[in-house]
Amino acid sequence: MKLNRVHHIAVIATDYERSKAFYLDVLGCTLLSEVYRAERDSWMGDLALNGEYLIELFSFPSPPPRPTHPEATGLRHLAFEVDSVADAREELLGKGVACEELRTDPHTGNAMMFFADPDGLPLELYEA
């Protein structure tokens, strides 16, 4: 088997509209399509970053909370590459998003920083 790349990442939100606004207005994603699936009482939005399909944003009635933070089994965090972690952090802070302090990746020496989406999903900015 030959994997070409990651096709998409699926995120379940407790409040679809709040999370959609975060990913669109705060992170700068664009909404490619959106559908309400009545049989599942669920919204599904396809989000893109720089024109590339990236995130499926879902809502489901009463999803269970993340068991621990951030070291839960499964997806640990989602990382986004940026040109300047310091500049991106300041922009997030200006939009009212709580951010951790800047860090340096001990393996690469690159700048990095963590923050969270509205449901506490750990997100990372990484300077490549």
How does this model look, in words?
- This protein is α/β, with parallel strands linked by helices.
- The protein has 2 domains: 1-62, 2,3-Dihydroxybiphenyl 1,2-Dioxygenase, domain 1 (Roll), CATH 3.10.180; 76-128, 2,3-Dihydroxybiphenyl 1,2-Dioxygenase, domain 1 (Roll), CATH 3.10.180.
- It has helices at residues 16-26, 85-94, and strands at 9-13, 30-37, 42-49, 52-59, 78-82, 103-104, 111-116, 122-127.
- The longest helix has 11 residues, at 16-26.
- 16% of the residues are buried.
- One of its GO terms (molecular function) is metal ion binding.
- Residues 5-128 form the VOC domain.
- Keywords: Metal-binding.
Give the arrangement of secondary structure elements.
Layout: E1 9-13, H1 16-26, E2 30-37, E3 42-49, E4 52-59, E5 78-82, H2 85-94, E6 103-104, E7 111-116, E8 122-127
Parallel strand pairs: 1-4, 5-8
Antiparallel strand pairs: 2-3, 3-4, 6-7, 7-8
Q: What's the short version?
A:
GO terms for molecular function: metal ion binding. This protein has 128 residues and is of the alpha/beta class. Helices cover 16% and strands 38% of the residues.
Keywords:
single chain; 128 residues; alpha/beta; 2,3-Dihydroxybiphenyl 1,2-Dioxygenase, domain 1; 2 domains; 4-stranded mixed beta sheet; 2 helices; 8 strands; 38% strand; globular; VOC_core; metal ion binding; metal-binding; Glyas_Bleomycin-R_OHBP_Dase; Glyoxylase I family protein
> What is the name of the CATH class of the largest domain?
Alpha Beta
Radius of gyration: 15 Å
Total beta-strand segments:
8
Residues in helices, as a percent range: 10-25%
Into which percentage range does the β-strand content fall? 35-45%
Largest sheet: 4 strands, mixed
In the CATH hierarchy, the third-tier topology of the largest domain is known as: 2,3-Dihydroxybiphenyl 1,2-Dioxygenase, domain 1
N-to-C SSE string, H for helix and E for strand: EHEEEEHEEE
Q: What are the low-pLDDT stretches, counting only 5+ consecutive residues below 50?
A: none
Shape estimate: globular
Q: What's the mean pLDDT score?
A: 92
